[in-house]
Amino acid sequence: MAGRLDGKVAIITGAGTGVGRACMERFAEEGAKVLGAGRTLATLEESLSHVPSGMGAIHVADLSKDESADAVVAAAIAAFGKVDILVHAAGVGYSWAEKSPGSMNDTVNTAPDKWREVIGINLDGYYLMARAVLPKMIAAGGGAIVGVTSISGLLGLSAAHAYTAAKAGMINLTRSLCVSYAKDNIRANCIAPGFIDTPMVASVVGIFDDPVVADQLAPMRRPGTPVEMANGCLYLASDEASYCNGSVLVIDGGTSARQ
């Protein structure tokens, strides 16, 4: 079924890799013009190369910075004239510990600066993007916001406490956006992925080669793919999800069913 987003303009954050890149591709396939935002020009350019000519644009931004979100929204409007959809896939996960040691530890072993770092990237960025895009959506008569969270925001874990707190915060912010802006014809939903085969977990994805471990990680015994996550975002952003608001769509191959 093609054309589900014909005439729409979507901002996709975290668009340089993984779920964000897959969202750029899938949304463009379904007729949307897409503005991809992220930290690294080279990866954004690679994502843009998978989008039909004239259907995409990119903007380099550190979305943990207050001013960056406004600049992303302005870039989308300059390129395509409006914003109908925000998919916030930007964030860091377990692989961030390689660049920032100590950022994915438990509470006692997470220094305050590491806590603020992860919260700033994962939660503050979502708040800032929503804050920047909502006035445009309200003025236009509606829109759709989709946050890419994690089942780690629904479960207690022994490590990565800043990460789990940020993802839980994203989930409840999504619900609060629903409550506040439904009257403005704005829907806010999120997906909660499980173990997804992205660069964020590339160093450990081989653990699925062990069938016993694979079964413990997910009853489907494999990681999910970025495209499977993008399909969930696409559904929530489309008119097919017209009565979905404040929803958390878990896409985890059954991992959380055992909790």
TrEMBL record:
Q: Which GO terms describe its molecular function?
A: oxidoreductase activity
Is Disulfide bond included in the keywords of this UniProt record? no
* Pfam families (UniProt xref): adh_short_C2
Keywords on this record? Oxidoreductase
Tell me which InterPro entries the record gives.
NAD(P)-bd_dom_sf (IPR036291), Sc_DH/Rdtase_CS (IPR020904), SDR_fam (IPR002347)
Q: Which residues form a coiled coil?
A: none
EC code: 1.1.1.-
Q: Does the keyword Oxidoreductase apply?
A: yes
Superkingdom to which the source organism belongs: Bacteria
Which family does the entry's similarity section mention?
Belongs to the short-chain dehydrogenases/reductases (SDR) family.
Tell me what this protein is called.
SDR family NAD(P)-dependent oxidoreductase
Q: Which organism does this record belong to?
A: Sphingosinicella xenopeptidilytica
